[in-house]
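[retry 2/3] Tetratricopeptide repeat protein: previous attempt timed out, resubmitting with same input.
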Amino acid sequence: MTHVTEDDLDDLEFDTLRTGDHIAAARRLAELAETVSGGVSRANVLLRAGEQWQHAGDHGKAAEFYRRALEDGGETYGDPRAYLADALFELGRADEARTLVDQIRADRPRDPEVYRAVAEVLYAQGDASGAHDWATNGADVVLALRDNAVGTGVGGPGDAVPAAESLTPGPDDVAIAEDSLEALLRLRYRARVDLGRGEDDYDALLDDLLKNA
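[retry 2/3] Tetratricopeptide repeat protein: success.
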């Protein structure tokens, strides 16, 4: 068995950015997934292997590893279904991809990064309206966490996202979620421009974030 940490995986991916050899990285991660022990889950390594295959342009292999990550059921970052949907779209299997997106929506995730990932996938497919909705819902999750953290209870997301009262933030939840907010609002703004919609309160919030950056 091989003990692998998140830092080890990050180092491997950093080296791959330098070399550009995504196939070698995918194969190495696939090997590690068979022997990984402690530190990180097998599912997490499989998910990273899928990403490397996708960067290499082999969407079929990427989909295979994303499915293996899902079947493993171990802890991963984000939601493997979002990554699998991306690969399926690239393979021309849009109906399967949208079924996965619907499944994620039905689960009403509380991780803003899941909303960002799905929004980016839909935007890349030319679905500006879908991307706008997912980015908005992700921003609502962040704002609900923020409100609950300060005890205001102001606002709250709609039916497509978790109820505000269910979003009880832990000590690091709000800080982590805030890191997603700017990306969500930027993507939402791009979608609004594509849709020909005027600026609104969310866009004003993005302006404030950029001014205070």
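[retry 2/3] Tetratricopeptide repeat protein: Residues 58 and 93 are 15 Å apart (CA to CA).
[retry 2/3] clearing retry counter.
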